[in-house]
Amino acid sequence: MVKHNTQVGDMITIEKHIKSTLSPHNDTAETSITTTIITKSYSDADLSRLPKKIAKRIETFKPRSSQLDREQLESAQDPFRGFFTLFWMAMGFYVIQTWSKNLQAAGILFDLSFFRLFSQDAITLIISDLVMVGSMFFSVILQKLIAMGWIRWRYTGMIIQHIFQVSFLFIPIYWTFVRNWPWVQSGFFILHTIAMLMKLHSYSFYNGELSGWSLCLSDLKKEYSNLAGELKKSDNDNDTEKQEHLNELKEKIGQVEGYLASPAKNISYPNNITFMNFVDFLLVPTLVYELEYPRTEKIRPSYVFEKIVATFGTFFLLYVNTEAYIIPVLPNITSSLYNSMLQMLFPFMVNYLLIFYIIFECICNVFAELTRFADRNFYDDWWNSTTWEEFARKWNKPVHHFLLRHVYQYSIESYKLSRRDATFMTFFLSSLIHELVMVVVTKKIRMYLFFLQMFQLPLIALSKLPIIKEKKWLGNAFFWFGLFIGPPMLGILYCREVFLS
User: Fold this and answer.
1) What torsion, rounded to 10 degrees, do the Cα atoms 414, 416, 421, 427 define?
2) Alpha carbon distance, N-terminus to C-terminus of the chain
3) DSSP bridge pairs for 34
4) 3-state secondary structure labels for all residues of 39-82
């Protein structure tokens, strides 16, 4: 038996069995050649990377609490937990001060014009959002067809998925322009669409990769079965070469089976391709798909109630701050940029902190508790960041994990980019998506946010200077200065574009 291995996308093994018999009438050999071609969806290089890929997957999710969770602060005896209490007391006095000011100026506690703005066309917005989410189940059907062998992920399934994802993004964008929604509705709808698009991409491409490894496992088992059969039929019991190859196949089969199963071995591909599994993924507060996540033992109703109350309470503070200190200033295009910036510094910073708390501490923890999702590490201590690179890693962990797996690592593995080029690609894509949100919200293309976010790259290089590395407080002060200046400046620039038109 002679084997030749070649790789043009796949590994192709050609086995030639040659039987020769001598004719009794002459010395020529009559040769019968049987050729079997087996297409394999793996390579030795791919298999060698499996243990590392499995290790990374296990490290991605583990039971953790969010850092600003009240129970976590109390149980860990955090030395700064008093500042957490002080902040919310300050917010309470802030609201009282605002109400007193409104009563003296206008005779009302707060205006309802902002409420009328974001409640406009609410029923249509809800229906549109439900239709958008419902359309995502197309990917489950596609993955079922791939798992059943009717479609191959490479490249038919991948092309279909890409076409669907492009439609999934741009049809909602078109719909916001058709409905001519105000900036609140447009912003919510496009942000939710992008979040669901990331879930859709992670689910489809992760399972698409697993489908390839499933084919690989099938090929390995066939090869193992054929070789084991040959060894049984062979009269030579000392064929060590074949026995070693059989042992190698057995080890590879174990590696692939390990990758196709969850870390806890409770579920494996393709048993995960169900509608219920997809619904669970839609509800868990993560953008990265896994076969299985760490879970808590039970749902705590009191904890859910606490976080829901905190959500509405924080949103009320957000509403009061926006209504009293931001809405009256931004439409004033006659005021200079400098004066507007001075008025917007603290209101925008307060809004930034409140929005962060609502999303990552309240809403994410509510969904985590309802789904018993145990990994509550939605953010790290981004407030201690000394570089913008550190901030990008820490402040929004769900998006960071998505970009890390599906943009940064994928571009290195698939397109052979260097780490520096992969970092640039990740920042570039993130900046484009952020600017796309502003285009939908303002109905204009101005690229302010895009250029400001890309400007973080030279700032990251600047942060590597020895003086900043040695003096962490200087890097942290530089970071907070940028966070104070950036959001109000962007808000003023974009709002002036809208109101000038």
Assistant:
1) 10
2) 78
3) 17
4) EECCCHHHHHCHHHHHHHHHHHCCCECCCCCHHHHHHCCCCCHH
Cβ contacts of 421 within 8 Å, gap of 6 or more: 411
CA separation for the pair 446, 232 (Å, rounded)? 72
Of 162, 192, 245, 434, catalytic: 434
The pair phi, psi for residue 340, each rounded to 5°, is -65, -40
**Is residue 266 classed as helix, strand or coil in its secondary structure?**
coil
pLDDT at 4 over 50: no
The Cα–Cα gap between 218 and 210 comes to 12
CA dihedral sign, ordered 169, 173, 174, 175: positive
Average predicted confidence (pLDDT) for the chain: 85
Structure confidence by residue, pLDDT tens digits, 14-36: 333 333 333 444 444 333 333 33
In the DSSP assignment, the letter for residue 294 is -
205 sits in which H/E element: helix 183-233
- Provide the residue count of the chain: 501
Can 434 be counted among the known catalytic residues? yes
pLDDT, one tens digit per residue, over 154-199 is 999 999 999 999 999 999 999 999 999 988 899 999 999 999 999 9
Q: What is the pLDDT of residue 17?
A: 35
Question: So what's the pLDDT on residue 463?
Answer: 83
Cα 62 to Cα 58: distance, rounded to the nearest angstrom: 8
| pTM of the shown model | 0.86
Structure tokens at 142: 């596609």
What are the phi and psi torsion angles at 32 (to 5°)?
A: -110, 125
